[in-house]
Amino acid sequence: MPSLQSLRRKIASVKNTQKITKAMKMVAAAKLKRAQDRILSARPYAHKLRDVMGNLSHRVNRESHPLFERRDGKKIELVVVTSDRGLCGAFNTNILRRAVEFLEQQSKQGQQVSVSLVGRKSIDFFRRRNWAIRQQWGGVFDRLSYEHALDIGQNIMSQYHEGTFDQLYVVYNEFKSVMQQQVIVEKFLPIEPPQDVETDETSNIGGYLYEPDERDLLETLLPKHFEIQTFRVFLESAAAEQAARMTAMDGATRNAGELIKKVTLFYNKTRQAAITKELMDIVGGAEALK
């Protein structure tokens, strides 16, 4: 049976842990509010731009720009977006599990796969695996800005232009609500038409008027589109991370409270038993002196 002193230490230790998890929950809640405002502001523009580029890819000559061009090669790259820190529940575990499933599935189909990693958790995970790592970026989410998306997006586009890979997929956590984040595997390159766009000849009736011309417009819009979508993914992941961390810390705080109650109850019972035993020893000694 543990001593009263060890029980007191355990109660104090759990109370200190509870203070930490409660403080982390409050910090995550404050960060979540800012991250949620950013993604809700950026999402409509990013989604509309994606729809426009998807429709444009259906109406123009797909050979007119490398980001539209469909390739017959079997080289696939997966960008894995995780957090830089832990203590956010199953946030990173779900992404890494889905990434490994995707890589194994593509490998079985005869594809050559490689990974680019965003976030220290993905870097630590794949560093101990045998998958080919092309590039890695850590510390992105400490002070997330559009410049991060600009640098990473340009790096990926340059590698795509050089033929390093033929298709690009991104796996990340999409922010749904405080209680829900959904792991998404999204194809980024080549840019494809939306699934609801018709593919018959009648869908080409109408079209777009280009000013100054189609090629110059695509040279400007497509890189910008890719950078915007990259930034949207980072914003989604940042908001989902803070939501997952706030939920995890809330659960940890409640669990610490329940543990404190159980240990305190056990401490009181043990202390009462010790007092009762001492009283019985005193009464027994007094009876023996009679």
Q: What characterizes the major β-sheet?
A: 5 strands, mixed
- Which residues sit in consecutive blocks of at least 5 with pLDDT less than 50? 197-205
Counting DSSP H or I runs of 4 or more residues, the number of helices is 5
Total of domains: 2
Shape annotation? elongated
Q: How far is the first residue's CA from the last residue's CA?
A: 34 Å
Structure description:
With 290 residues, the protein is of the alpha/beta class. It has 2 domains: 59 residues, Orthogonal Bundle (Helix Hairpins), CATH 1.10.287; 218 residues, ATP synthase, F1 complex, gamma subunit (Pyruvate Kinase, Chain: A, domain 1), CATH 3.40.1380. 60% of the residues lie in helices and 13% in strands. The protein has 5 helices and 5 strands, in the order αβαβαβαββα. The protein has a 5-stranded mixed sheet. α1 packs antiparallel against α5. The longest helix has 76 residues. 29% of the residues are buried. About 3% of the residues have low confidence.
